[in-house]
């Protein structure tokens, strides 16, 4: 009799368990949406506010809030896609996602913030990123961890499934009032721990662990990935005058293009690319879509009246 009663109750118990799971998920989503609204407001403040202290305070609150949000179970599945002031990129294999953003200093330079969130299926596992840029004297020759990160705001992840899986990160680095930087960095994992930089960029008589581009602040530089050709293409940067060859803050595109081509798990430098043979994948996230967040903020301020 007891056995029959238990069997007859099984469907009800299953329904109750399913209902409880759905209720939990619904509560978590509601909680994450509330966090998202707060993060949107704080993000606008740390980009738009002209007061240096206000920007930094908003960023401090943003960091505390994003950590709380990511602690919510299954937060990895929540896109936070209404927060336009930071970059959130999922790796194509869904192994992790990386969140990055800049804060402009009073002198026009930038400091970058971010974290790597691993896809654990529930609980939070993340690696905060600490911008170590001023102390990295030779960034193209350095392998670092998340505590000595060459800060950047990433807009593309390229997975490479070689003998050791790694991910090329394309990012905007900002720099000073005179120059901007962009970077090709490499993320890999050693025993689950993140490492930045890997000796896989070959060319110009040298192997680099990452590639850093610097050019004049007032110009734009193309830097994008062409998946059809396993090719990273970029503007060739040159000075306006030979006398300025040691002044990268004067550099700009000279209407020629170079690149890195993936061969046997490494990236080989290619000069003088014919762009007529390079597919236009401008419908994907490319450098042309990425703008200096401060320039974008100035446009937004002209469009949206300030409330007092």
Helical stretch count? 3
- State mean pLDDT (0 to 100 scale): 88
Helical fraction: 25-40%
Q: Distance N terminus to C terminus?
A: 72 Å
DSSP E strands, number: 15
Helix/strand-derived category reads alpha+beta
Write a structural description.
It is a single chain. The chain is of the alpha+beta class and about 300 residues long. It folds into two domains: about 1-85; about 85-280, no CATH class. It is about 25% helix and about 35% strand. Strand 7 (about 180-190) and strand 8 (about 195) form a beta hairpin. The longest helix is centred in the N-terminal third of the chain and has 47 residues, at about 1-50. The N and C termini lie far apart (about 70 Å).
Question: In summary, what is this structure?
Answer:
This protein has helices spanning 2-48, 52-70, 293-303; strands at residues 87-90, 96-104, 110-118, 126-130, 153-160, 166-175, 179-190, 193-196, 201-203, 206-208, 211-216, 223-226, 231-238, 252-263, 266-270. The protein is α+β, with helices and mostly antiparallel strands and 308 residues long.
Secondary structure layout plus pairing:
Layout: H1 2-48, H2 52-70, E1 87-90, E2 96-104, E3 110-118, E4 126-130, E5 153-160, E6 166-175, E7 179-190, E8 193-196, E9 201-203, E10 206-208, E11 211-216, E12 223-226, E13 231-238, E14 252-263, E15 266-270, H3 293-303
Helix pairs in contact: 1-2
Keywords:
5-stranded antiparallel beta sheet, 6-stranded mixed beta sheet, 25% helix, disordered C terminus, 3 helices, single chain, alpha+beta, 308 residues, 2 domains
